[in-house]
Design a protein that fits this description.
- The chain has 714 residues and is of the alpha+beta class.
- The protein has 20 helices and 25 strands.
- The strands form five sheets. Strands 1, 2, 3, 4, 5, 6, 7, 8, 9, 10, 11 and 12 form a twelve-stranded mixed beta sheet that branches. The chain has a five-stranded mixed beta sheet with strand order 13-14-17-15-16.
- Strand 18 and strand 19 form a beta hairpin.
- Helix 6 crosses helix 14.
- It is elongated and about 105 Å long.
């Protein structure tokens, strides 16, 4: 049962909604204005016998006045408010934030589930539960939903956008979405519900989570230091996934606002600039109740809806547990086009007309895939560590089940990695892998830099590396999944330079709070790595925030962590071979890369860097992928060196291959293909990939030689 709002503030708002003054209410009740003023200022409350008269004056029932858990239905009705055009004549062709992400339900799953994780209520120790519901509407169900949306109010605006769609990217998407709805008489709704989350708390306009999501761009108000998001862009995926640019919201609050928590409803529409009946409109629009407290009484705010309204808007929640429901109206999945045709060949697909972007079965499968791939760790528990997240996907057509609700199980989607994480939580790891199913643990250091561009190290954070044998369901083998506090997979990387015959494995790197709340410098590592993530939160590297807060070379600390991780993985999975053994001899014959290369004679001498280790493998595009280590002598000044990759042939000149990529990993920098070594460093590591178009013969038939040449290498 909701706790009603205090009588004074509630009555004050109802008078504004009804357009009444305190004096007018006093006259209707036969009382003095001072008596009404005392109610408003909370100095007194009306007698029970007066409550009925107040209800009559406000055009509502006595129960509403007593409970005060909703606004009266008298006065200003729910409507769409469209932001007026800019007075200086400026125009926006759409919300630029939406272009930071593709119209892809897998990207949507990653961003929305991350946001729900960030807003999880941690006090009760329970996971946040996130459910995705795909619902296709046709016929009468579609007509009823359009009526609930007040489509007649929106039609002129969509028509104006369609008329100018040839000149606007957003306009073309919206025009296609409207035509699909009317010509094919269908509309796909995609709803994301989370439970045990904070909900959109705060005022409609002032600082708070509600305003950050509904009113503002590029603002991120997260609940904890370990939050995944930091740019305030993730919410834009909601509107990017809507072909109509429309999202409806129903939030149950963890902290009461205006004395209430349930059914706080609002809608937001993202359209480009348009002119309707000669009046220019800037772009966004909101569905809500006009707010008489604003300078422009047409501006709308959220309203406390009744159960019938949220049902008609397809926003009904399961219970009164805090959280938010986002309804994407006109959902489409452009990234599924490549898969839609094949997935419908079984005769059960919904894209019989070839329209894969609105195939609800493909959407369902792709959502399940993304959740299992990106959030397996957040859904894994063990020992005293409980899962942070539960997710599921279900699909309907006109209220009838098309695909049963499917709960995502990390032991099914990522069996090896979830086994590794569970073993860590249960303290069941080993030092070295000797049997199938074991999980080996290694500590890997992340040396955190000092902030503000100062040289030196703040401290060393010990990350946790877990390695176990791979299974077929894991996907690409020999990968490291890296994650921090919210346990979303941030970085996926392949360990290169492995010898032939190594047992396939999967590895997990836990850093920051994921390594343990009590691990030294866990909070500092969390903050540092969060700053090293781009808006997609899919890697760690150089970012503007990292440069501004730490230094332009701070990302090298992450590169060194990667080097430490790869070395630890190899130490765990590569079995030492006895010199001269038959197995060792066979492997050496198959290797096509020299593991040590001679230094160019022109650069010989006691102060010349020396190439001491070389690992290589053939990549997916048939390129050579090379990782090389250079031993640096003690010298006041080291010469710049150019790595040159050559084909090792039996006779004649060795053909030189071009670099497609050449990057520094540790102890050096790359400028124009030339290595510049850090002063005082004792070793340097660089990584490169050849350009396959420069290979004169098939890559599989070649052997390589790598040389370091002084200067430009010519």
């Amino acid at each position: 049962m909701e706790v009603g709002e205090e009588f004074g503030p509630w009555l004050s708002r109802q008078l504004k909604i009804a357009g009444k003054t305190q004096a007018e209410l006093a006259d209707e009740l036969g009382l003095t204005r001072a008596a009404v003023s005392a109610w408003i200022t909370k100095r007194s409350v009306p007698r029970p016998t007066v409550m009925g008269e107040i209800a009559k004056a406000l055009g509502t029932d006595l129960g509403t006045v007593h409970t005060r858990t909703t606004d009266t239905q008298a006065g200003l009705p729910v409507t769409w408010y469209h932001r007026p055009g800019y007075q200086d004549g400026g125009r926006d062709g759409g919300n630029a934030a939406a272009f930071a992400f593709d119209a892809d339900v897998q990207v949507l799953a990653r961003e929305t589930c991350q946001n729900s994780l960030d807003e999880r209520l941690v006090e009760n120790g329970r996971p946040v539960r996130v459910r995705y519901t795909i619902h296709e509407l046709t016929g009468e169900k579609l007509e009823a939903f359009r009526a609930a949306l007040l489509w007649d109010e929106l039609q002129p605006h969509y028509s104006a956008v369609s008329e100018s769609s040839a000149d606007q990217k957003v306009g073309r998407v919206v025009d296609a979405g409207v035509r699909d709805m009317f010509e094919k008489r269908r509309l796909i709704l995609l709803r994301i519900d989370d439970y045990n989350a904070s909900g959109l708390t705060g005022d409609d306009y002032d600082d708070g989570k509600f305003a950050a999501v509904v009113r503002r761009q590029l603002e991120s108000l997260k609940s904890g230091r370990g939050a995944g998001g930091s740019y305030g862009l993730g919410k834009a995926t909601l509107w990017a996934t809507s072909a109509l640019g429309m999202v409806l919201i129903n939030s149950t609050l963890s902290v009461p606002h205006e004395g209430r928590t349930e059914r706080r409803v609002i809608g937001r529409l993202e359209l480009p600039w348009r002119s309707v009946d000669g009046i220019p409109y800037a772009g966004p629009a909101w569905l809500g109740r006009p707010d008489p407290e604003t300078h422009n009484a047409e501006v709308v705010r959220s309203w406390w809806a009744d159960e019938e309204t949220v049902e008609r808007l397809h926003l009904t929640r399961d219970n009164d547990e805090p959280g938010t429901s986002f309804l994407i109206v006109g959902a489409h999945d452009v990234a599924s086009l490549e898969q839609g045709a094949t997935d419908s060949d079984d005769g059960e697909g919904d894209a019989g007309d070839g329209d894969g972007i609105r195939d609800i079965r493909v959407m369902h499968r792709r959502l399940v895939e993304a959740l299992g791939r990106d959030f397996w760790a957040a859904m894994t528990g063990g020992g005293s560590r409980l899962p942070l997240l539960e997710t599921s996907v279900r699909t309907y057509r006109n209220g009838e089940i098309v695909v049963e609700e499917e709960t995502v199980d990390p032991t099914d989607t990522q069996p090896s990695r979830s086994r590794a994480l569970r073993a860590f939580y249960e303290g069941a790891t080993v030092d070295r892998l000797t049997e199938a199913g074991q999980v080996a643990l290694r500590a890997v250091p992340l040396r955190l830099p000092l902030a503000g561009g100062r040289s030196g190290t703040l401290g060393t954070h010990q990350g946790v590396l877990l390695v176990t044998e791979a299974e077929d369901k894991d996907g690409v083998p020999n990968q490291v999944h890296s994650l921090r506090g919210n346990r979303m997979t941030i970085k996926k990387s392949t360990v290169h330079g492995l010898p032939l015959g190594v047992t396939q494995f999967q590895a997990v790197l836990l850093v920051g709070h994921a390594a343990g709340e009590s691990v030294p410098f866990a909070g500092e590592a969390e903050e540092f790595l969060r700053a090293a993530e781009p808006p997609e939160h899919d890697r760690w590297g150089q970012t503007e925030e990292l440069t501004l807060r730490w230094s332009h070379s701070a990302h090298n600390r992450i590169s060194r962590l990667t080097t430490e991780v790869n070395a630890a993985v190899k130490e765990l999975v590569v079995r030492p071979k006895r010199p001269g053994s038959e197995e060792s001899y066979k492997l050496r014959k198959k290797l096509t890369v020299q593991h040590k290369a001679a230094v160019s004679k022109r650069s010989s001498g006691p102060t010349v860097p020396e190439l001491v280790e070389l690992d290589a493998e053939i990549g997916e595009s048939r390129e050579w992928r090379i990782t090389a280590e250079v031993k640096l002598p003690r010298a006041d000044e080291l010469p710049a060196m150019t790595p040159v990759v050559l084909l090792d042939v039996r006779s004649g000149g060795r053909p030189r291959l071009d670099w497609a990529e050449l990057v520094a990993v540790e102890g050096c920098e790359v400028e124009g293909g030339v290595l510049h070594f850090e002063q005082g460093a004792r070793r340097a590591v660089f990584r490169g990939a050849t350009d396959p178009t420069s290979h004169p013969v098939r890559t599989e038939l070649t052997r390589l030689a790598l040389e370091l040449r002084a200067g430009s290498g010519e």
